[in-house]
Amino acid sequence: MLRHALGKTFRFLGYTVQYGCIAHCAFEYLGGIVVCSGPSMEPTIQNCDVVFSESLSRHFYCIRKGDIVIVKSPNDPRSNICKRVIGLEGDKVCTSNPSDFLKSHSYVPKGHVWLEGDNLRNSTDSRCYGPVPYGLIRGRICLKIWPLNDFGFLRASPNGHRFLDD
User: Fold this and answer.
1) If residue 39 lies in a helix (H) or strand (E), which one and from where to where?
2) pTM, two decimal places
3) What percentage of the chain exceeds 70 in pLDDT?
4) Does the annotation count 83 as an active-site position?
5) Burial (0-12, 13-18, 19+ Cβ within 10 Å), 144
6) CA distance 96 to 72
7) Which is the catalytic residue, given 83, 126, 144, 157?
8) Under CATH, which number does the domain 34-163 receive?
9) What residue ranges do the domains of the chain occupy?
């Protein structure tokens, strides 16, 4: 009787570990569902929108300018942020705020990206903390799931004029 109970317990633990490993690999390498909060990506992504974030792009270095990514926050490693890629390594980017009279520019260093929120007036992004290491990217948002009336692929940046092609 005890042997039978122990066998069932170990079998259950074995399946739990197996399914846990499969779930971990799926979320780490394929993607997952993310609930976005905060106003920094408005109007593209509203507070409490649900999106699908795929992780394959970051593993194959396929992140491009204009992509919206989920990134470990450079200010707080326990939280994630959602921002748009404005510049890749070697790109010239505008580092000043839109309201600044004099514009300043800089180049994105090797192994980094420049991130900004679509809501430039209400976003803490690379203009505050500088270029972000590529290794902090967790995934690329490719689809808005909720609300259903806004279901589909994400629209282009309302700040496309900030992308420089020098």
Assistant:
1) none
2) 0.77
3) 92
4) yes
5) buried
6) 23
7) 83
8) 2.10.109.10
9) 34-163
User: Is residue 40 annotated as part of the catalytic site, yes or no?
Assistant: yes
Contact 31, 139 (CB under 8 A): yes
How far, in Å, CA of 124 to CA of 135, rounded?
19
Which residues, 6+ apart, have CB-to-CB distance to 95 below 8 Å? 104, 105, 106, 126, 127
92 vs 65: CA distance, rounded Å: 12
Confidence label for 166 from pLDDT (cuts 50, 70 and 90)? very low
What CA–CA distance (Å, rounded) separates 130 from 9?
51
Q: Comparing C-alpha atoms, which of 79, 51, 31 is closest to residue 155?
A: 51
Out of 40, 55, 123, 126, pick the active-site residue: 40
* CA–CA distance, 33 with 144 (Å, rounded to integer): 10
